[in-house]
Amino acid sequence: MATEILIIDDNPDIRNILQDLISEEGYKTRVAANYNQALTEIDKKLPDVAIIDVKLDKGDNDGIELLSHIKNKNKDIPVIIISGHANIEMAVKSLKSGAFEFIQKPFDQERLLNFVKRAVENFKLKNQNKELSTKLFHSFELIGSSSNMEKIRDQIIKLSNSESRIFINGPTGSGKELIARKIHMMSKRSNEPFVILNGALLDVKKYEQELFGEEKNNGSISYGALEKASGGVLLIDEVSEIPLETQSKILRVLIDQKFKRINGDHDIKVNVRIICSSSKNIINEIKIGNFREDLFHRLNVFQINIDLLKNRVEDIPLLIKYFSEKIAHSYNIKKFNIDTDNHYLINYDWPGNVRELRNLIERIAILGPDSNEKVSSIIKESLKNPNEETYKVENSLSVPLKEAREKFEKEYLTSQLKKFGGNISKTAEFVGMERSALHRKLKGLGVKDLN
To answer: pTM higher than 0.70, yes or no?
Structure first.
């Protein structure tokens, strides 16, 4: 697809010169002769690069307002500002407002073309980086054979064909955003925006501005997440962190299906699918008064619950194999092996869940150990809790042999049961015991059935 340059200038001679000059370089062009035409062209379709005259028909700083308008829609679009009334103050103001370059009339044609070429390269590079990042994230799959993962995959398929609001519960690092993206990718809205608003990262004073947008005194508009996601999906991550006052306004949007920007007079209709997520127990948050119950019921049309990684240990070997291959490919390095039966991997609590496991595998890939022993050493050093290890050793030395042996057997058999997802037959076969004998041993040790 040809790169498109939008030319905005009220002087027809300048417009024609710019259009001829840029078209000869193989770029597609659009033009606007005044402020209102420019707004229409920008809102109709964003260009890849814009060339804007500072002074049009509306005022002395029309071009700066249009620059801000474009940047609010997509901050990566390069804008070249031109002016016949240039001074240092104007140039500085333009660059501070986000202009890619500033050039004075009458301009040198070669210099202007050089600016355009650099702007196009800049835009393409940023797009390529975003595409690579998106492809990497989208290429991740929901890995696991646990009943929890099987259920979630089935839910994603069913929810992708609906427009229901979704509430995703899950601990930090468990894959809530990945699930939301999978639903978006498989839905009818897949070609529309996927926008994330993170309730935990926003400045408390800016929640409403980030959500609804703002109409500023100079006539420019700052678009909020609801408009940016129009036609697509808005993921409100850590929704429980949003202040109660803003929660009531979100509830009103869901009821009325419209809202006003801050300082705005006109209603804007909502056409967006909302997915919310939280790592907190939302029912507890409602009980202690941190979250509105009526809003929760509006958002919680369908609920997806992700288990802690430590509660689906059978997924760990599959995740290790998957991330090892994925990371080796991403880093363009030789495939490396990790022993999935490693005691530390199976018995570790994984407070950071899947994200922590992935980070560990990436650490191993970066360090590039050349033996299984070195891999095991990295795992041990990364996952051990020094205080806990010291306590275990000291505690073992302070009890009789029989009690120490029972503690070891209990830990060992519990670990094996976790590895085989609570399957007694598979565990018995692996440890070399009859199924009935294993049952008796587990009962004697006080190990409960994991199923």
So the answer is: no
